[in-house]
Amino acid sequence: MPSITNVGGSVTSALALTLLAWGFRLFRAAALRSDAAKKAHAKHASRKMSRFAAHLSPASLRLLVESDPFPHTIVDIRPTGAKDPLPDCLKESTAIPVRELEAALTPRKGNWQEAVGSEPPSPESTLVFVGDSQQDVKEAAVIAAACGYQKCLLFGGDFSDFDMDASLAPKKMLSRDATAALLGLVGPAGVCVDACVLDLRRHDERALYGCIPGTKHLPVDQIPAAMEMEDEAWKKVYGFPKPGVGDVVVMQCRTNRRAAWAAQVCADHGYKSCFVYKSGAYGWRLDPSVKAYASYEMGECPPEPEPFGLEVPDPAATAKELIELGLMRL
């Protein structure tokens, strides 16, 4: 009689080995997916917003659109077909959902040009992200920083009360002679309160056309981020102490457009004694080293300085103005 092989035992063993192999493969695939997810999370977590990213109030966002104090591009990062309409002042925003932002800002992919019909903004310009939530606009700022855009302004939230919340702080204007007195450049020493005068112009403007003695430099497009810095970080970045919310701060630019916007940002952060020097470097005319010049943007040919005659301060009018504003020690 021929021998009979224990077929059942052999099949059972084979089935067990097959199941064991499948289980190992499933376990290995799950482990690989988990490892990939951890690496992706770590990569995402390592990406941060630039130190020059900051939040805007409705009032500062509105004034940014209305006065256009520096080059910027407003990007609506909400999903396509968002339920709530944007306020009228933001109707011209560029619509790019946050999930498509990285591809749009990566030059080699060309998605920005396809979506918008123009070249993407320069990395030196400021991107202003508006969205439905703080989380979404922060994510947009992280993506932008990874794509080389260091200056981002953020507004995330409910747009239903935007117009009501966008009321502007009253402007406190200061004359040239009063500004010079606060800097200790005219009049008797020690009669004015201490003040910090911030020159908001670009580096090239100060280098080419001079700066008012005693002013501190802080480019206007960095004001929102600077306001959110701790004192130590401010001093490390800008080289002078951060003014306190109770200090007198004077904003100065070429004329007063950038200064007015910066004053609104400061008011949003609790500064009660923030003034705008209304004539700017263009109207200084107390010092030949501070030249008058026409407006120009970065990348344009700088204009020739304009001739002017030196002028003399009016001590009586200056003292009257400073007393009325509470800026003179009595």
Automatic annotation (TrEMBL):
<dbReference type="Pfam" id="PF00581">
    <property type="entry name" value="Rhodanese"/>
</dbReference>
<feature type="domain" description="Rhodanese">
    <location>
        <begin position="194"/>
        <end position="293"/>
    </location>
</feature>
<dbReference type="GO" id="GO:0004792">
    <property type="term" value="F:thiosulfate-cyanide sulfurtransferase activity"/>
</dbReference>
<protein>
    <recommendedName>
        <fullName>Rhodanese domain-containing protein</fullName>
    </recommendedName>
</protein>
<dbReference type="InterPro" id="IPR036873">
    <property type="entry name" value="Rhodanese-like_dom_sf"/>
</dbReference>
<dbReference type="InterPro" id="IPR001763">
    <property type="entry name" value="Rhodanese-like_dom"/>
</dbReference>
<dbReference type="GO" id="GO:0005739">
    <property type="term" value="C:mitochondrion"/>
</dbReference>
